[in-house]
ATP-binding cassette domain-containing protein
Amino acid sequence: MLKLEHLAWSIPGGESIIKDIDLELGEGKLVVVTGPNGGGKTSLAKLIAGVETLSGGRIIFDGEDITDMDVTQRAKKGLAYAFQQPVRFKGLTVRDMLELAAGKSLNEGELCALMGKVGLCASEYIDRELNASLSGGEIKRIEIASVLARKAKLSIFDEPEAGIDLWSFARLVETFEELRAKSTGTLLVISHQERILSIADEIVVIADGKVRQHGPRQEILPQLLANEHAVRCPLEKESAIV
Ligand SMILES: Nc1ncnc2c1ncn2[C@@H]1O[C@H](COP(=O)(O)OP(=O)(O)OP(=O)(O)O)[C@@H](O)[C@H]1O
């Protein structure tokens, strides 16, 4: 459903950030992208969503070449993106944002169901403006709810765990599992969280702008966990000596 061919992206100064990425994602899968900070995950998500413009390569979505389409055209084709740091929209209420995302007016029950998926109670929030009065975690969850409202063919979530409390995070993980079970669309989730990695169908590891590993969770996750221990153990030994 999504095919990335030789994707490349350099920042205006010339530094190469994304380096020849080839990747194919299947329909209805939950794919988790992980890797070290600064490896290029957010850049890749922005390139897929059309927020940044490719320096080279092609993006095929549902059999169609969307490389030259802008963000809005890609959104109309069924691509939704939740930013790592959500944007606030003064003058727009939570209800407005969710209804815009859903493309229709929503009744109280529908609003409640949507907000419940991210651990928020609709009645407390729907009439609030999307401005600085909302906390970082609240705005993040509302943005995730708006992406869920889109029911897109491909939904991209950039570090949905960032700034979210444990209880809401647990609810969000359940929501991802429910969506995957319904196979309504493909989910691409950028995350460093083992809890999210542990529900993935596939894991992609990106470092230094390249795909380092890609495969089923059962294959990749044990390797990631083993590497984590390989890094941690010498340090633990050192601290034991001190
Ligand atoms: N507009 C930009 N201008 C300059 N450098 C940029 C720009 N966008 C990204 N970078 C750099 O590109 C590299 C990759 O950044 P990116 O945000 O894609 O990493 P990431 O894997 O998502 O990291 P994290 O896990 O910390 O969120 C970083 O070194 C970052 O500083």
In short: Residues 217-241 form the longest helix (25 residues).
